[in-house]
Structure formats: C-alpha cells, structure tokens
Design a protein that fits this description.
The chain is an alpha+beta fold. The protein has one domain (2-229): outer membrane lipoprotein receptor (LolB), chain A (Clam), CATH 2.50.20.10. The chain is built from four helices and 13 strands. It has a 13-stranded mixed sheet, with helices on one face. Strand 2 (66-74) and strand 3 form a beta hairpin. The longest helix is centred in the N-terminal third of the chain and has 20 residues, at 2-21. It is globular.
Length: 236
C-alpha cells in the first residue's frame, strides 16, 4: 500500500507540473528560406516568418508517422525539480513511462480515438483503467497539437518575436510571445528539419523560468504493441 500511495502521489505531482509548465537524431539542415543565421550558426534576430513558413513547420511535424523521445521538465533555475518521462507517439496513440531518480517506473497508455487510458505497473504486471483526460493532462498533448496551439497563439500575439538558434546541432526557429497582461513570456524552439518542439520555456515573475525539452529523439517505426497492455497483465 505504501508503494501504491507513492506512485499516485507522483502522478498527482505531475499533473500540477503539467499545469505550470503547459508538455527531445538527424543531421543539421539549412534554415528555412527568408530567415537569417549568424556566421557562427548561433542566434540571429529576424523578422517574424510569414504564415506559410509556420504552416511548413507544422506540416513537417504532422507528417511524422511515429516518434520516441525523452521529455525533461525543469522548474526554476536548478535541476532538483527535474522530472523525466520516456514518450512514444504514433498517430492518436501515446505511451508515457515515468522515470523516478533515473529508474523507469509506471507506464500510461492512451488512445485518443477511443478516449481510453491505462495505468500499468510493470513490476507487478498489473493495470487499471484511468480517466482519459486526467491521464492526458499528465502525459501532455500530442506533439502536433502542441505545435499547432502555440503557432495559433503566436500569430494572435500583439508583439511576437522570432530568432534562429542552433541547439545540439539542430537549427531552430524560435517563437517568442508575451501572455496577455504581461504576466508571463513563452518561447518555443521548432527544429526546422522536422518541426519538432525541442524546447519550450515559460517565464513568470513568481516562479522564474520552467523548461520542457525533447531529448534522445528517435524517428524509427514503432510497433503497435507498444500501445497495448502486455499479455497477462492483471486488471486491478
């Protein structure tokens, strides 16, 4: 019972983090036409890209058949509040495995078509059906939906900003904007090669800067079995 309580306490903690933060290859590609890059390939300010360029980035991420990556969330300036998940996405299916102190932990499997979600405990080979929307708030929105929502907000922002920055050899279009009322600032780094949001930041005066990153990105095909409960799993 103690271990079970600890798992659900961790689950609720992740829901709170998700509300605060709002959810990581292939070689570097030349930046999109119409933007500028410094001679060193680092950060260069540019004019805001046209809607067609943003649509191109969105189209790239929407065309990805499947992706596996590590999602790392960090609150504030240090790493003591770092939380990691290993994510698998394919179509409208998601698999999320929590990582607690470097050790793989519980797994959540979500099917958006059927609006069904399961919590699976590998060490006990036991599973239970959980509220789909509660699980989605913990796992985060699918990548394409996250990018689409950010671009829509960016295009509606009064004073959006755009930069080009290279992160780990990946040339990114960096979209920045202020939340209405000036209470927060948001930025997203879109990898120009695939449109993936390899970094997101939310800065608020009370809490500082929270960051979500995609690491260890893999674009290899993912088997459908990854989004199913293992054979013999006992339902709680």
């Amino acid at each position: 019972m103690v271990e079970k309580s600890k798992r659900w306490a961790m689950f609720l903690g992740l829901l709170i983090l998700g509300a605060i933060v709002s959810a990581g290859c292939v070689g570097e590609k030349a930046p999109e036409e119409g933007v500028e890059v410094s001679p060193t390939g680092e950060v260069t300010a540019s004019t805001a890209p046209q809607s067609a360029q943003l649509s191109t980035l969105l189209g790239k991420v929407e065309s990805i058949p499947s992706v596996k990556y590590d999602r790392v969330k960090t609150l504030g300036d240090g790493n003591e509040n770092m939380i990691s998940m290993v994510m698998w996405e394919k179509g409208n299916k998601m698999r999320c495995q929590l990582v607690d102190k470097g050790e793989a932990s519980d797994i959540y499997i979500l099917n958006s078509d059927e609006e069904v979600a399961y919590h699976y405990v590998p060490e006990a080979n036991m599973a239970r059906e959980v509220d789909f929307y509660l699980a989605r708030s913990m796992a985060g929105e699918p990548i394409a939906e996250t990018v689409r929502a950010f671009i829509e907000s960016y295009e509606e922002a009064a004073m959006p900003s755009t930069e080009i920055e290279t992160i780990d050899g990946k040339v990114c279009t960096v979209l920045g904007m202020s939340v209405p009322g000036g209470i927060a600032e948001k930025k997203m780094w879109l990898w120009q090669e695939h449109g993936l949001p390899i970094r997101e930041e939310l800065t608020t005066k009370p809490y500082g800067t929270s960051r979500t990153e995609m690491k260890n990105i893999e674009l290899d095909p993912i088997q459908d079995s990854m989004f199913e409960l293992p054979a013999g799993a006992e339902m709680m």
